[in-house]
Structure formats: C-alpha cells, structure tokens
# Entry
Amino acid sequence: MDKLIITCAISGAEVTKDDNPYVPYTIEETVEQAYQAYLAGASIIHLHARNDDGTPTQDKLRYKHTIDAILKKCPDVIIQPSTGGAVGMKRDERLQPTQLAIEMATLDCGTLNFGGDDIFINTENDIKYFAKIMHERQIFPELECFEKGHIDLVLRLHKKGFIHKPLHFSFVLGVNGGMTGEARDFYFLRKSIPDDATFSVAGIGRYEFPLAELSIANGGHVRVGLEDNIYVSKGVLAQGNQELVKKVVEIAKKYNRDIASPKEARKILNIKEKKDEKTM
Ligand code: KMH
Ligand code: ZN
# Structure
C-alpha cells in the first residue's frame, strides 16, 4: 500500500468558535492550526478562508495572504483551497482561489441538501466549468463526492473529456443530506471507482475515525479536521486540529501504514509542484 496521505480540513466555512474555540478565523490562528496539523503528520491542508469575524469568504486576496503566511511556516505543505466555499456562493465567487498559483483544490461533484433549508448547489454545468478552469490552470482537483450518484457523474464527465485522469476522489460521508458513513457505504463507494483511481475519506461527525480506520485498512487516504468533526472522542472537544491528525497517525501505526510527507503525497497523487512561484 502507498504511504498514508493525511489531509487536514482546519477551518471549514460553517463550523464556528461557539462549536469549538480552536476553529481558526484570523490569519494568525489559521497559520498556527495549519502548522500544528502539519507537524502532527498532515501533508495537505484543506483551506477555507475566513474573515476575522469568522464569516466565510472566497476573496482571492484573503486566500493569498493566508496561503503565503502558511507557506512561510511550512514551505513544503500542499495547500488545497476550497472551491465549495459556503452554501449560497456563486460560481465565480467560489473560484477565486484558482486565480492563485495553487497546486490543488476541491471540485464538488454534485448537489445535495445541506441541512435545514440549505442546498449546496453543484449542477452538471457548474462541475464542467470548475473542471475546465482547474485543468487550464493545472490545478489538481480533489473530486468531492457526497454520495454514489456524484461518482457516477464524475465517471460520465471523465468519459466525455471534461474531467481528466488521474482521478482522485474524496468520499465526504455523513453530511445531513448526503450519504451516511457506515462500513457498507464505504465499501460500496470504494468498489464504484476505477482501479487506477485514488481516494480519501472525510467522515463527518461521529463517522470521522471509523471511516478513517476503514480507509487506512483498505489502501485509501484520510481527511480529518475541525471542518468535519469537533470532537477527539465522544463528548470531548478537540483542542486543535493536531489532536485529530495525531489520532489518525496512531490508527495508521496499527496497520503499519507510514505517513506520507508532502513530497511523497505529490508523487502518489501525481501533483505538479508549483515551486518557487508566487501565489499570485
Ligand atoms: N462548505 C460547504 C458548503 C469544499 O470545500 O469544496 C462546501 C465544502 C466543500 O466545504
Ligand atoms: Zn471544505
């Protein structure tokens, strides 16, 4: 099996300091959370920019300042900005971070209910548009799939030439409105992607660690972080993202999976490093 790539989703767009005081808002807080997660074993930082008051933003400059500050502290880490942003944001608003010299970004592969009245909209045309822009800008897409139909759409769009290999999926399971993260769900999705594709799992809430373990045992990669889950164990708030990453590292030891460095993660996924380029 390949070494284990750990992605840390440090900030999110919806989770707040009322949920967990370690959720970073300011650039300084974000850098500290990214740095600690990196030291603990994360090679990819999944990033949502936030304003100082915690409101989510896709503003290009806010991303640039945040990314530059993170790279100053951990120059080799892979930064994966969100193009999902927050519910209700429009296409071009969401795509702003792709105007920076980034290596990787998320590509959300279908629409779903997102709790209450919220709908996270990703139409087929949205996905084609996002995929085209990322391809033109040589940004490696992490294909976020919240249920099986999203995988089917990716495979159809790949056949039609809109989404290109290498295909790297992220199964985001347990969203209120998406597929749950039970073991049967994991195996179903795992069997639904091509043999030469790679995958990572992101379990929301209580699914985070059971899914991480299943993925580790089955050759997949793992995403954890306060965006997805605020607890390190039942009822115990994580005191920072690094606690969640450390827990994954411990699980990986049980399965003799070594942890990939950012350089090794690039090699496993086939990501082009945008070295020495400024982020703008
Ligand atoms: N905040 C969610 C609406 C992504 O980062 O690409 C979307 C999201 C997905 O978090
Ligand atoms: Zn996200």
